[in-house]
Amino acid sequence: MPITVHTHSHMEVNNLSWSTSSKKVLDDLSFTIEKGQFVGILGPNGVGKSTLLRCMYKYLTPDSGEVLLNNLNVSAISHREFASKVAVVLQHTPVGFSMTARQLLATGLINQQKWWQRINQVAEKHEIDRVLSLVGLTSKADQIFESLSGGERQRLLIARALLQKPEILLLDEPTNHLDVGYQVEILTLIKSLEITVVATIHDLNLASAFCDKLLLLRDGRLIKSGTPAQVFTPASIENIYGIKTEVDSHPQGRHPRVTYHFDGGRHAAV
Ligand SMILES: Nc1ncnc2c1ncn2[C@@H]1O[C@H](COP(=O)(O)OP(=O)(O)OP(=O)(O)O)[C@@H](O)[C@H]1O
């Protein structure tokens, strides 16, 4: 059985902008993330998806606008308080020194003790074994993180985030490196937690199947938002990605299915 956390947490982004010295990366974004929603942030490479997540988890401070967690500006929330509600899985998470999978997971257990004091306690060992099993890594428990495959690392980092029992999970391309079996399995697991999830995601069909709401970005601006059925039309996909598609209903009937036309894509000569 997955770890179930009933969430009461929600987020709101109001008029958020962020720039480098030479480029406006995020331009006046506003949207809400309702409690329990699974929200996908989509858009081509370089449009600002990861930067938006960085603002949402307090790594970057917006130039203007605000990010609210449960109606409080995140800049006014201590890192400890924030981490008790929000867990983050990044694309490239630096792991400081050689740790086994089990040791890395122990760093995700939030309480007053140091992870090396917690790791052998029975209840916590049980929790760690449980999440290892959930992400299919039981046999890798004592393997050094750096020696795991890309997909195994990704699953381990998701498992560590789950151990935090967050009310909100922020994920930067969670399916990166995962084979199709694990893409579906991990997203199904995350969805089953019924917590609030915000994920950047490139795969339109996975976004369609798992997300309640999609935010479509282009050049740092929010172009369209809504349910997959509202957002995924051939016109909006061509507008954002410059490719032609067919959009029909998935055979399982609950969400749109996007099929790409292979005519060279947006950089093809016309
Ligand atoms: N600290 C920074 N300094 C300079 N440029 C930056 C910085 N952070 C982000 N950028 C630029 O802002 C743009 C958006 O980057 P971001 O990583 O948010 O894009 P993305 O939509 O997540 O892309 P991808 O789909 O490729 O992961 C890119 O052009 C990136 O080079």
Structural class: alpha/beta
| Low-confidence residue ranges | none
Report the portion of residues in β strands. 25-35%
Helix and strand element order: EEEHEEHEHHHHEHEHEEHHEE
Q: What is the spatial order of strands in the main beta sheet?
A: 6-7-8-3-9-10
Tell me about the largest β-sheet.
Answer: 6 strands, mixed
> In terms of quaternary structure, what is this?
single chain
**What sort of overall outline do the alpha carbons produce when their principal axes are compared?**
globular
How confident is the prediction overall: mean pLDDT?
A: 89
The hetero compounds bound to this protein are: adenosine-5'-triphosphate
Number of helices: 10
Helix proportion range = 25-40%
- Specify Rg, calculated over alpha carbons: 19 Å
The separation of the N and C termini measures: 53 Å
Based on DSSP secondary structure assignment, what is the total number of beta strands?
Answer: 12
